[in-house]
Amino acid sequence: MQPRVTAVLVARNGADYLPRTLAAIAAQTRRPDSLLLVDSSSSDSTGSLLSDFGGAVITTPGRRSFGDAIAHALQVSGGGSAENDWLWLLGHDNAPEPGALAALLGAVEVAPSVAVAGPKLMRWDAADTIAAFGETITTFGRSVQLVSDELDQAQYDVQSDLLAVAAGGMLVRRSVWVALGGFDPGLPSVDAALDFCARTRLAGHRVVGVPAARVATAGPPELFGRRSLSAGAQNRVRRAAQLHRRLAWAPTIAVPLHWLTLVPLAVLRSLVHLVAKRPGSVGGELAAGIGAAFDGSVPSARRSIRRSRVLGWPAVDAFRMSTGQVRERRAQERAAAAVAFSGHREGPGFFGGGGAWVVLVALVIGLIAFGRFLGVGALSGGGLVPLSSTVAELWSHVGYGWHDIGLGFLGAADPFAVVLAVLGSITFWSPSFSIVLLYLAALPLAALGAWWCAAAFSRRGWGPSVAAIAWALAPPFLASLAGGHLGAVIAHILLPTLVLAIVRAARSWAMAAVAALLFAAVAASAPVLVPALAVMLVAWMLARPRGIPRLLGIPIPAAALFAPLVVDQLGRGSWLALLAEPGVPVLQAAPSGWQLALGAPTGQLHGWDALLAPLGLPGLVPHVAVLVLLAPLAVLSLLSLFLPGSTRSIPILLVALLGFATAVASTHIAVTLVGSQATPIWAGAGLSLYWLGLVGGAVVALDALGSRAGVPAWVAGLALVAVAVPAVVSGSSGSTAVVESSGRLLPAFVTAEASSRPDLGTLELRAEPDGGLAVTLHRGVGTTLDEQSTLAATATELTDDDVRLAQLAGNLASRSGFDIAAELDALQIAFVVLPAPAATEEAEATQLRTAESLDGNRLLTPVGATSAGYLWAFEGLAEGEAPSGPRPTDSPWGLGILIGQGIVFGLTLLLAIPTTRRRRVRSARGSDSDESESASGEEAVDD
């Protein structure tokens, strides 16, 4: 009996594909006996195209899935279900070759046990490439296409039994379709054909693939009726289908266990997605897990299987892909990814391109400048004091809690405290030693970061080599090192790596996470750079709109760090104080605009004025010398605007402009108080960004000069080395603010007493240059660098505690009837120290008067001169408790902040962990796009 074929063509918004598909159906050598045209509520011209083809068009009420639309059409059209009646299922983007239906019928006519036959699906835009042919499942139930995106070389042209075939172009016996109830409504797109074919086998029928039947397809089933679908959305659809099948296929006894693990497994797999650089899949993963837990279609799917099943599940298990086959498939994909990656453009090699030599030179110069710190345990001076003595103490000063500064206060810690905690944890046995190591390695680290950044944009080694020298010996960098501005030092070292990470973040989730961590570190170290970095980030988003989802996440860790401090500062109405330099406040003069243009954050010309002063030369000579030495770098930067590649130099020089504007603004923002005087923000951080732009412009110019870059590179490099000579000499001779330290902040006598009484107070009275007296209250061994707070340094209004301390200091510095003993007992102050005064007559007079008053106070016992100044002890201190408050983990607010920050940084770290190299992957519609993902893709999270 001749088979009767009813072709069912379902279209939804398929006007772009229908003309070709309809023409292909009309061109069949064995045409269908009848044709059902189904319009699933399209919003384009699909309906008119179907009507023009001829015949009645069935319109579904509302948007239906492919399977639902077929079921509706068969219900409306009626018709029998004789044993030799067949349904040919086609979508609007399934254009069969002329002999496709004939080949399918030929396969089923010779094998009566076959109930489903599937064609070889070919790519719509590449007729010689197999889009899909055959489906199976892994041991854990994940669906896998046996063949996908392979060049058709007849390697699969052997008809064989398969577990499943795709829905597009499927030929199915009508009686079987009716008996099984068609596609499962719980599987609207993905795995619908797989589930149907599995149920067909359980019902005792065969499923075969027919390679001679070729049908074009424009995309996977989840794209039916859609223009596009993000990778995260595709993962959600596929995972939801897998979970539905798991619940529908599982033995009854196992269903509760599967149901209980849905949400926990979704959370676990979300973490795996982060590690595999697929953060866009996290939301879909969670949604699929939660949706499966409330999937009301599972019971009916299970009933359908029980009603039609004739054979046991071994009929399906025989076609599963084994674990070994899955491993082999992953290995092949990794090998393909490695081959694809090997085609990327190579820049200069680190060793062959001169990078190693430049870093070695920077190391030697660094040891000359700071070699005197070898064997030292801690540093102090300028903006530096030692860190806390243990890692636990370091981490206890992050978040939100009590600050033992003055009489103490409850507030947010500076984000820089986290940077210091991480830094100190590296040398956990002696946290302060980490700063010593940083000074010894600062120059080579800066050179290494600059070289790698420049090499990523250069084809030759001259540019990266000059960039490394220029960055390692940058005047603002050396000035920050000399002045103990640790935040500016860290920011300078990290800036090139941050820029490189941000550039690459537009195409890589891993680099976006790395950029987020670096952005947080730079922002915490030098908050004044945040506005400029934000402008740069927004500009890069506009330049790379496709990378916006990745770039948007870069500021999130920094925002998590700054949020508590922002709330506190805005609560005081001091939003500019958020830009204050973290660390020990340092009194400094604001440099002029001319000095800033020369890269000098201080009032000196990189030390050349002091170096040439003994020679008796005119004052203009140092300016001329510095101008001459900086001229090669400036000329190369400006020249980049007129050489090939100027499209790169323009944004780079705009970065320099942003940095210069930041430096100028820093000198006009005086939010930090040192005693009674306000001091501007350190301009070195802004000048580092300014210098980065200048160096970047020089790199572009040297790369454009090609083989003629040798002489300009040597001239610029040697000139920059010459500029740094005074700073290096000053560092090696020890004439900088930063000096070696024993690690003590207070006299040894006080430190010994504080070892058993960490809450013991020491009152520091310091004579100011104007004759005033500054008072500071230390607890325990003293206020370490990680305990410093910009909330205290930028406070402009006197609190009751400030008045109380000032009153105590005033009465100690003069004879009065004030009950000093009671106040010392109440505040648990056991010592008074009087450091050396400022070098002014007013300060010396105040120092002398205060010392006489302290000596004449019978409550205080003179201890004598110490390295920290003159010391007096209050031996009659009564037992009591010093003012205190909750630590970060002692209050719900503080604990919540720590947990929130921990989650943000934990997820970012997971995303930043390297897995595999970037590879080219093919999108659902066949276009190529760059993605950074696990080479094994979805297979990395099978269960």
Short account of what is shown:
The chain has 943 residues and is of the alpha+beta class. It is 48% helix and 14% strand.
Features of this protein?
alpha+beta; 14% strand; disordered C terminus; elongated
Protein model, in words:
The chain is an alpha+beta fold and 943 residues long. Helix content is 48%, strand content 14%. The strands form seven sheets. Strands 1, 2, 3, 4, 5, 6, 7, 10, 11, 12 and 13 form an eleven-stranded mixed beta sheet that branches. A five-stranded mixed beta sheet has the order 21-20-22-24-23, with helices on both faces. Strands 8-9 form a two-stranded antiparallel ribbon. Helix 1 links the parallel strand 1 and strand 2. Helix 16 packs parallel to helix 19 and helix 26 crosses helix 28. The longest helix is centred in the C-terminal third of the chain and has 24 residues. The protein is elongated. The C terminus is likely disordered.
Which secondary structure elements does this structure contain, and how are they paired or packed?
Blueprint: E1 4-11, H1 18-26, E2 34-39, H2 46-53, E3 57-59, H3 66-77, E4 85-91, E5 94-96, H4 100-109, E6 114-123, E7 126-132, E8 135-137, E9 143-145, E10 150-151, E11 160-161, E12 171-173, H5 174-180, H6 192-202, E13 206-217, H7 231-249, H8 255-275, H9 282-293, H10 298-308, H11 314-317, H12 323-341, H13 355-370, E14 378-380, H14 391-395, E15 400-403, E16 409-412, H15 416-426, H16 433-455, H17 462-472, H18 475-483, H19 486-505, H20 509-525, H21 530-543, H22 548-551, H23 556-571, H24 593-597, H25 608-612, H26 620-639, H27 646-667, E17 672-674, E18 677-679, H28 684-705, H29 710-733, E19 739-741, H30 748-754, E20 761-767, E21 773-779, H31 790-793, H32 800-812, H33 820-827, E22 829-834, H34 841-855, E23 861-866, E24 869-873, H35 892-912, E25 919-922, E26 928-931
Helix pairs in contact: 7-8, 7-9, 7-10, 8-9, 8-35, 13-16, 13-17, 13-29, 16-17, 16-19, 17-28, 17-29, 18-19, 18-28, 18-29, 19-20, 19-28, 20-23, 20-35, 23-35, 26-28, 26-29, 27-28
Transmembrane segments: 350-370, 376-395, 407-429, 435-457, 477-503, 509-539, 620-643, 650-675, 681-702, 709-729, 893-913
Keywords: Glycosyltransferase, Membrane, Transferase, Transmembrane, Transmembrane helix
Region (Disordered): 920-943
